[in-house]
Amino acid sequence: KTVSWGLALDFDLISQEVEALKGGRKVYSIGSSMGAYNAILFSSRLQAERVIAFNPQFSVNVNYIGPDGLSERSRSLLTKWSDQVPENILGFFSPRTKYAIVMGSAERDSLHHKYFHRLARNSCVEVYKIDVDDHNVAKYLKRRSLLKRCIFTFFKTGTLQNFFSQNLDLLENRPLKLVVLQMISSVRRLF
User: Fold this and answer.
1) Greatest CA separation found in the chain?
2) 126, β-bridge pairs
3) 18-46: per-residue pLDDT in tens?
4) CA dihedral defined by 54, 58, 59, 62, rounded to 10 degrees?
5) pTM across the whole model
6) How far is CA 184 from CA 23, 60, 86, 134, 165, in A?
7) Rounded distance, CA 43 to CA 38, Å?
8) How far apart are CA 172 and CA 140, in angstroms?
9) SS (H, E, C) the chain
10) How far is it, in rounded angstroms, from Cα 71 to Cα 55?
11) Residue of 19, 23, 3 whose CA lies nearest to 11
12) CB 141: neighbour CB atoms within 10 A?
């Protein structure tokens, strides 16, 4: 296993293999943390219909995001590919793909959330922030039996706005409910 945020992967080879396998079917992409970063990274090349990304990094370039945007372990692992690290992930979004970015409120994720929130002005990107101090938002949703429904709702409808507003009672504590509602309201205003 190589921790590389996709920088050690052969994009051309993977794209060719997926193209040969998809046989006219739609491509959906999903990931959490580094996997979410890669889901976005590959979305344009794979012509993904939808991408749901749980706590992706907006950038893994320390010069862009600063030392607080990544853990010390992540920074040390990325030094091997420092000459290949893009400034940020912005150039990898496709206007033909629908994206849902679901973030937690862990301290190290707040910087990435800020950048993704600015990106939400684009009509193909929805950004949600759940007030849970955990980088693993997918695990948090799974413990509440919401992860599968969240994923399938987005893949089917291309939005999570109704999903979050309809499931507030399953998302614990009051501050969480308020944050989700505020985020949904701000996402609606941006579109």
Assistant:
1) 48
2) 100
3) 888 888 889 999 999 889 998 998 898 88
4) -90
5) 0.81
6) 36, 27, 30, 20, 8
7) 8
8) 10
9) CCCCCCCCCCHHHHHHHHHHHHCCCCCEEEEECHHHHHHHHHHCCCCCCEEEEECCCCCCCHHHHCHHHCCHHHHHHHHHHCCCCCCCCHHHCCCCCEEEEEECCCHHHHHHHHHHHHHCCCCCEEEEECCCCCCCHHHHHHHCCCHHHHHHHHHHHCCCHHHHHHCHHHCCCHHHHHHHHHHHHHHHHHC
10) 14
11) 19
12) 22
Interatomic CA distance for residues 191 and 183, integer angstroms = 13
The side-by-side arrangement of strands in the sheet containing 98-103 is 28-32, 50-54, 98-103, 125-129
Residues 162, 32, 38, 161, Cα dihedral to 10°:
10
Q: How far apart are CA 31 and CA 96, in angstroms?
A: 19
Dihedral of the alpha carbons of 166, 172, 173, 178, in degrees to the nearest 10: -30
Nearest alpha-carbon partner for 114 in 79, 88, 139: 88
Q: How many CA atoms lie within 13 A of 58 on its CB side?
A: 24
pLDDT in tens, 59-89: 877 777 666 666 677 767 666 666 666 777 8
